[in-house]
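Example 9 (inverse folding). The structure is encoded as follows.
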């Protein structure tokens, strides 16, 4: 018999129990309890494909604790004999996401007292952790900037630092925080540089604001992006040395005539960034 999964499918026939207890769903549609017909339900448990309200599922005595305070959530579950994870389906991401937990009211009260007792110590620990992350982020941004300068020695140092800091912001989802970015791969670094050139050295943003589709806007400025990247690969290169079209010329010229002359022809595939 297969082990129960902590993540239900979008159309489960029953709410699976997790290692941490029952799973409760916040429905996206109006649902009523199949047993007592109460509803519409804010939370439900699925049993044999039928929704049950918390009272009919013997969970009605629990209180909801929204996500956000990790210490309080963990301690509330430790102090509760019975608890349940609450999830809601995210249509855009195609998965269930945790919204909080249901815990016993007395257990929540005990957990709150525990959190108040060591609040100052946890505050100091969070501050230490924040400073540590800042140092790690600064070292990583410096390493990313150094790799930009190695691959593109003609890139101005200040510009390389700006690109590195933008690409490596923690939690941003940008290329610098990807697995390739953290490994300082040539593809990721080139992608970050190409994205900066696209937005700052071409009329790309203006084309998007005019209503032009993104892929068409990229084709129109591809020659300018490639010219800057090619120039930055040469030490001592400046904008006046490019010999290529200006941003305004690139907008008028339209897409380059030859296949593979856009930024994707540079090292890696800059189309993966932004």
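The amino acid assigned to each position is listed next.
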């Amino acid at each position: 018999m297969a082990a129960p999964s902590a993540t239900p499918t979008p159309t489960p026939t029953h709410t699976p129990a997790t290692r941490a207890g029952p799973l409760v769903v916040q429905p996206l549609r109006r649902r009523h309890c199949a047993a007592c017909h109460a509803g519409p339900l804010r939370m439900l448990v699925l049993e044999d494909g039928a929704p049950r309200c918390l009272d009919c599922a013997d969970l009605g005595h629990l209180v909801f604790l929204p996500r956000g305070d990790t210490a309080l959530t963990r301690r509330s579950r430790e102090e509760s004999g019975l608890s349940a994870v609450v999830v809601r389906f995210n249509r855009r991401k195609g998965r269930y996401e945790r919204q909080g937990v249901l815990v016993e009211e007395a257990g929540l009260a005990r957990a709150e007292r525990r959190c108040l007792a060591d609040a100052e110590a946890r505050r100091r620990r969070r501050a230490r952790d924040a400073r540590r992350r800042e140092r790690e982020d600064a070292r990583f941004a410096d390493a990313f900037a150094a790799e930009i300068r190695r691959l593109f020695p003609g890139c101005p140092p200040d510009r390389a630092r700006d690109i590195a800091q933008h690409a490596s912001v923690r939690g941003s989802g940008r290329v610098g925080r990807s697995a390739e970015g953290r490994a300082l791969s040539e593809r990721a670094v080139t992608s970050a540089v190409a994205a900066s050139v696209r937005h700052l050295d071409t009329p790309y943003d203006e084309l998007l604001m005019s209503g032009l589709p993104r892929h068409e806007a990229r084709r129109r400025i591809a020659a300018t992006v490639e010219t800057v990247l090619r120039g930055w690969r040469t030490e001592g290169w400046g904008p006046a040395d490019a010999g290529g079209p200006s941003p305004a010329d690139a907008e008028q010229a339209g897409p380059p005539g030859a296949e593979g002359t856009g930024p994707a022809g540079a090292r890696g595939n800059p189309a993966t960034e932004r």
